[in-house]
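Thread title: Can someone regenerate the structure for this chain?

I was given the following input by a collaborator and told the matching structure tokens would be attached. They weren't. Posting the sequence so someone can regenerate them.
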Amino acid sequence: MSGFAEQRSIATVALVVANYDEAIAWYVERLGFVLSQDVDLGGGKRWVTVAPAKGKGARLLLAEASCEEQASRIGNQTGGRVFLFLETDDFSRDHQAMLAKGVEFREAPRFEAYGTVAVFSDLYGNLWDLIEPKRQG
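Best answer:
Regenerated them for you:
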């Protein structure tokens, strides 16, 4: 026994954004996410989470930058590497839907040993993978 609870998960990942409302609109309208929470914390701060509709996995906490240092990280939280991975059960369907909504893909879909994947960017330039994992068996 490790001393930790057996049932743990990464539930929320913070994403620094320039503006709460523009980020909510982009994730809801372009990626089909749902607004999970939007709680006023006072002083201009909010607790805003979005997540894929009917999806599993972590939510995104849209954290509006509150200082120059935080603002300098918007769109480049990982130094230009893919930051987040949006997993789907139907790559072609979601790829087409995202293209129709104006999502910018940085490459054509490719087939890897682990599945079908293409890199896209969010409204600030953060890089994501849209991925349909290869089915086992």
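The CA atoms of residues 43 and 66 lie 11 Å apart.
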